[in-house]
């Protein structure tokens, strides 16, 4: 019997309605102190795993079917089961699930089975990594970790767990996690989708034309210092022939970093104004669109803001690619 764990309780999955509502989920993150209340149509054969403060998964009850691939449990029999490794916040993982459900619903299909791993220890390590990468005077004296091997090992352990649980594809709906994509995917027995590749592929398929005659196709990239430094978005976009336009140092220091700090102070209006300036600075440099690859900035602007129409959310590209994979796997393609 499958069970759902959220760190506090376990319940048999057959008691859950396929349209079960997940709500009131605390994020373990100072940036998002409000509670997220998305309505998610969760497949009856999906499970969510939330580790304890030590980073360990709760002990599953006897017969839960999570010990290996030899189980006859219904979850493991699905050829389109997806494993999801949560990243810098619970909000990001739930936002990704919401996008999966929304896209599937638009196509008149049910969401595929999935296994979601959520880890507060990893959340904190990633948040610390991102924060220490910002050259902010307020964090100048904070110690920056020099060895991120613990994060890589944590991710590899989750990947192995998901493989043993029977998933046939793995995704990481968190930007900074892709800094370790190569290490995590090494030796992986199932596809591990890359968010940067998903975005670059969709942009290529869109057959965009340069805004200035004779100029290359320019794509703006707005992200945290840690994501920009990792360089995986730049690499994936350039491999598809795009010129990547990054925020200059002045934009990072005077708009993007202060916008993140405004969020820390719950100054939403200040964060919105600063983000608008950062986006406009990129757009005036003749970019076709701006990739908004930032967990902090994703929900800053209201959905009807005109500037958002010129931006791409990589999580949506990853969701569409995941659904395409699941549909192909279900058909045996």
TrEMBL record:
Name this polypeptide is given: Aspartate racemase
Regions of compositional bias (Basic and acidic residues) in chain numbering: 51-72
Keyword Isomerase (UniProt): yes
Swiss-Prot/TrEMBL keywords: Isomerase
Organism, scientific name: Salix brachista
Short name of one Pfam family: Asp_Glu_race
Annotated segments matching region Disordered: 51-73
GO MF, one annotated term: amino-acid racemase activity
